[in-house]
Design a protein that fits this description.
Blueprint (H helix, E strand, L loop, with lengths): L2 E5 L4 H12 L3 E6 L6 H11 L4 E4 L5 H10 L4 E4 L6 H6 L1 H21 L4 E7 L22 H19 L4 E7 L1 E3 L18 H9 L6 E4 L11 E2 L1 E3 H15 L5 E6 L5 E2 H12 L5 E4 L14 H7 L7 H14 L6
Parallel strand pairs: 1-2, 1-4, 2-3, 4-5, 5-6, 6-11, 7-10, 8-13
Antiparallel strand pairs: 9-12
Bound molecules: nicotinamide-adenine-dinucleotide (NAD) and UDP-4-deoxy-4-formamido-beta-L-arabinopyranose.
């Protein structure tokens, strides 16, 4: 495994993973249509790592563009981050989500097959579990997404399973991320949402830096210790390292395997507010509003399988997630332009 195609490599998780790949001496080619990212992210990736990468501004749906990239490079594996990821938007615009994520992935897989690239790490999501029957959630739990975004993830997982049946030389690692948060410890790179953030931590950070007046907490009447929702937040640098562990695993073959990437520990919204206040030294004004439609009370991972088979474990705790997010947010209040 030497040369890796990273789709969506200009995005939040893709850019942080690309840093880790470059530091580990992989050759990296990034494909991104920049629909939710900036080329500045890739400039920073190169500054932080001290290494160069190749970048193609291209869309997954553009088959001729994909073919010319596969013609120009001999890839050992693909890490496939590219996709749309806003749950609410996926409910409003399901066709756009299915087309971009599923048709885009099909186009990619078809070009991979044509060029005999048969190793892939895919960004799946804990959202494939929907509302789990019990926590912690392991990889054997029922798969029942509750929104189109989640369905795109499950469909792509299934396509890769079927592809392995058709051609056993295909190997795929399906990484089911829990709640990625934080930023690169340098403060130079992090999440830079366009418009109002959908997720808790970027929203909290924008309130702390004064871009938004207050946080709305979506319900405090859940069946949880303090009534607010509980999630498994994982530092994006730990998550990035999980992809390198997945590449090492792919080298051994193994067909299609799914792994949870989480810490195994859940924190409530109120705990996150307190931790972020401590890290930033800022008070976070908030008010409690109605539950957000589709939200669940509690979700956190059983990460045992990733520990056992990938030799990977999250190392960074809540304080580091908040301190690193705050370093990035306070240095670049407007994110990447
Ligand atoms: P992101 O939006 O920052 O990155 C995705 C990148 O893909 C963006 O740079 C975007 O421009 C690009 N892209 C989208 N559609 C494309 C297309 N058709 N062709 C080429 N490029 C395209 O998101 P992220 O948070 O870095 O997420 C990366 C992956 O991880 C996504 O697949 C997402 O669904 C998955 N994931 C994210 C989270 C999360 O909370 N951030 C959780 C679980 C899974
Ligand atoms: C966390 C908690 C909210 C915002 C989503 C996707 C999931 C995955 C990760 C991609 C919940 C509460 C939030 C706010 C709040 N993404 N909250 N006020 O919903 O666990 O997961 O992102 O795959 O698929 O569904 O993350 O950060 O949106 O919410 O009170 O302004 O914070 O109710 O309890 P979620 P989140």
């Amino acid at each position: 495994m030497k040369t890796i195609l990273v789709t969506g490599g200009a995005g939040y998780i893709g850019s942080l993973t690309t840093i880790e790949l470059l530091i580990a001496n992989y050759e990296v080619v990034v494909l991104d249509n920049l629909s939710n990212s900036s080329p500045e992210a890739l400039r920073r990736v190169q500054n932080i790592s001290g290494e160069e990468l190749a970048f193609y501004k291209a869309d997954l749906l553009d088959r001729p563009a994909l073919e010319s990239i596969f013609k120009a490079h001999k890839f050992d594996a693909v890490i496939h981050f590219a996709g749309l990821k806003a749950v609410g938007e996926s409910v409003q615009e399901p066709v756009r989500y299915y087309h971009n994520n599923v048709t885009g992935s099909l186009t990619l897989f078809s070009v991979m097959a044509e060029y005999e690239v048969r190793n892939i790490v895919f960004s799946s999501s804990a959202t494939v579990y929907g509302d789990p029957d019990s926590v912690p959630v392991n990889e054997e739990a029922s798969l029942r997404p509750t929104n189109p975004y989640g369905w795109t993830k499950l469909m792509i997982e299934q396509i890769l399973r079927d592809q392995h049946v058709a051609d056993p030389d295909w190997n795929a690692i399906l990484l089911r991320y829990f709640n990625p948060v934080g930023a690169h410890p340098s403060g130079e790179l992090g999440e830079s949402p366009r418009g109002a953030p959908n997720n808790l931590m970027p929203y909290l950070a924008q309130v702390a830096v004064g871009r938004r007046p207050n946080l709305q907490i979506y319900g405090n009447d859940y069946d949880t210790p303090d009534g607010t929702g509980v999630r498994d937040y994982i530092h994006v640098s730990d998550l990035a390292k999980g992809h390198l562990a997945a590449l090492r695993r792919l080298k051994q073959g193994g067909g299609v395997e799914a792994f949870n990437l989480g810490t195994g520990r859940g924190y409530s919204v109120m705990e996150m507010v307190k931790a972020f206040e401590k890290a930033s030294g800022k008070e976070i004004p908030y008010n409690v509003v109605a539950r957000r439609s589709g939200d669940i009370a509690t979700s956190f991972a059983d990460p045992t399988k990733a520990h056992r088979d990938l030799n990977w474990e999250a190392e960074k705790g809540l304080d580091e997630m908040c301190v690193d997010l705050w370093r990035w947010q306070s240095k670049y209040p407007e994110g990447l332009q």
